[in-house]
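Subject: Re: docking follow-up (flavin-adenine dinucleotide)

Dear J.,

Thanks for your patience while I sorted out the input files. As discussed at Tuesday's group meeting, I've set up the holo structure prediction with flavin-adenine dinucleotide included as the bound ligand rather than trying to dock it afterwards. The sequence and the ligand SMILES I used are pasted below, so you can double-check that they match what you have on your end before we go further.
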Amino acid sequence: MSEIIRRDPRREWIARNRLHPEHASVLAALGVNRGGDGGAVSEWLGPNGVVRKNPRAIGFIGPNGVKRIDRSGLQQGGQSTATTTAARDSRRTVTIDQPAFLVVVVPDLTGGRLSGHDKDLLGLARRVADADAEQPGAVVAILFGEHKGEGGGELKEQALGEAGIDRVVHLDDEFYAGFAPEARLAALSAVEREMTPRFWLLPDSPLGGADLGRRLALRLGERAATGVWQVEADNEAPLGWRCTARGAAGSLDIQRPLPRVALALAECAEPVDETRHAAEHLALAASIPTTLSRIEDLGQVAVDPAGVALAEAEFILSGGNGVKQWDAFHHAAKVLGATEGASRVAVDDGFMARDRQVGATGTWVTARVYMAVGISGAIQHLQGIQRCDKVVAINLDPGCDIIKRADLAVIGDSTQILAALVAMVEQQRGGQRDAA
Amino acid sequence: MQPDLQQKQQQQGIDVAVLVSIGRHPTTGRARRAEQDARGLELALAIEAELPGTRISMLHAGSQDDSSEAALRGYLGMATGVGMGLESMTLLEQPEGSDAIPALAKHLAATSPQLVITGARAERGEGSGLLPYALAEHLGWPLVNSLASVEKVENGVVTLLQALPRGQRRRLKVRLPAIISVDEAAPAARQSAFGPARRATFAITPTTPEADSELAQWHLAPARKRPKRLKIVKAASARDRFKAAASKSEGKGGQVLTDVTPEQGAEAIYQLLKEEDVLR
Ligand SMILES: Cc1cc2nc3c(=O)[nH]c(=O)nc-3n(C[C@H](O)[C@H](O)[C@H](O)COP(=O)(O)OP(=O)(O)OC[C@H]3O[C@@H](n4cnc5c(N)ncnc54)[C@H](O)[C@@H]3O)c2cc1C
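The structure tokens for the complex came back this morning:
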């Protein structure tokens, strides 16, 4: 019945007659699409069931004052800003109240943040949890130690949710800090008792996941899959999944059913980028028994930053053509406890050794904090610092490329700023020593 | 009496068991001494040099054939001039495809050394790196992974340096008996000398083998190259895709401080360094 198109010749006539006083309202009644804010209707179903378009009603005025029509259907008369904000908010909010099962992830949380590896792993957890849309599982993250996140408060929690976490168990008591495998294992065993998750996923990384995951597997009596890089659904496997893992020093691919405990490599799955989850905080009901540890952590040992390989240094102070006083630069590196790096110009001019060069033809560095002093940020240099977390730039020129890359840029003379920084650090240290 | 005994023990050194496996040359695939296990033995030799009277025993569980024997002799050749204890190694004989863990656990429980050193991961077979953990769980001993060096052994407590990522080190104190595993952070192993390696003997202990039935069911294949991750651009329109492909990454647009005194600039940098916790 409803498929029959009923014509109303009078309304059609009004729709064709742009000068008719009821034109707009009739179009609205017929129309599918209305461009912009209260503008004319741009598209409606014609009398024969054919879509009619009003080309004057669509499009927008481009940057050069010329009218542009975007046929992709994105920009229908609206301003471009509107669509970008829409794109930013495009994550679906998902809450899972009654999970059918739990997937527990223990991220490394290095430096208080989810690393790329952690996010990949959470992506994998999501895949496993969401496989059956009727009965979704929930992803529980166990966080040890402080969680810094990006920003504070709300934003911080949002970061967890955007990584795909439904529930969070945050344990940041003092005795989990440092090397405390026994305490952490006790906590994870408590989680096992209370939640009986279907899967445990940990990163197979030297930052702690590899160690903790293996301990956990043995404690639970599971034969863990390690070095997992691919997970596929498999109806014949006991838990419904099959995994491919690296074995024998990376020379072997082992295909086996996915066990309850799996240690996965980086890039095992795509990180979550379409949904936002609740990241609701949970507390463990039972108190965790404190274990008497036979391992005592005496803390980190001061290593000579100059002896640390540039590629794996955590904090690099890098100097370029804009450094005028190299003695002061070396002194600053010493006071800050930073490993020294350099741009190619500084190396070519003989101020720094060749093995200190950062960039395309030098070392690709992975520092958490990279401080570029008097470096313009040539593309060859920026390539080398792609994987750095935070970049600080000190430069005279506010327009140069390193400023665009930097998280914090200070415009000014390198010598003076470095001197001020050194004075500040020394003063703070002095103050602490006096207080102690 | 008691302190006296301890004194004596200290002078006598400790019993160290080094677990060695058969390695695999990464390009030719031939049997050789495993890289990490050799580093473990190097560490044991360093302890012996520090603490005279330390007894090192080497332990391997596996089958005995020509190629594996040649690989195992690679370890035996490392102990030139040290003299004691390394002229032979214990071989817990079991056929290919048996689980090494029960045999090793049983032997270690019976001989009860104070320190067991293993490599982090084997170069053949599953290579999951679970063995040291399984032994630790089985024997109930503490385990420290990724060891860089042993600093001192005193009154049944060993002080160790553990290697952390980014070239950092952590000092730990562990009560003996303990298991420690070494990886690439430990000092490199010395060369193996041919003569001592030839002269050394094997003490073969038969075991009751337990077949690793689970491993036999898995599908093993030479490692495939992992697919490279593509930069996925989620854009609804061609224009957005083009923009994403053509534009330089703009960065997130950090904070830029212009017209500040050097002190203010330094203050801001100092705050960031503090926040990131890189100042020590
Ligand atoms: C094939 C090839 C490979 C290359 N590989 C590399 C590589 O691996 N690594 C690398 O680094 N380069 C490499 N380069 C060189 C690269 O292109 C640049 O020339 C180089 O990085 C520039 O170094 P710079 O930033 O130190 O010097 P400049 O470009 O001269 O920049 C100096 C900066 O210091 C600022 N400045 C000046 N005085 C002061 C002051 N008093 N206080 C504060 N700031 C000041 C200036 O504003 C300027 O921004 C390569 C080039 C080629 C052709």
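A couple of observations from a first look. Chain A touches chain B through 92 residues (CB under 8 Å). Residues 10 and 28 of chain A are 15 Å apart (CA to CA).

Let me know if you'd like me to rerun anything.

Best regards,
T.
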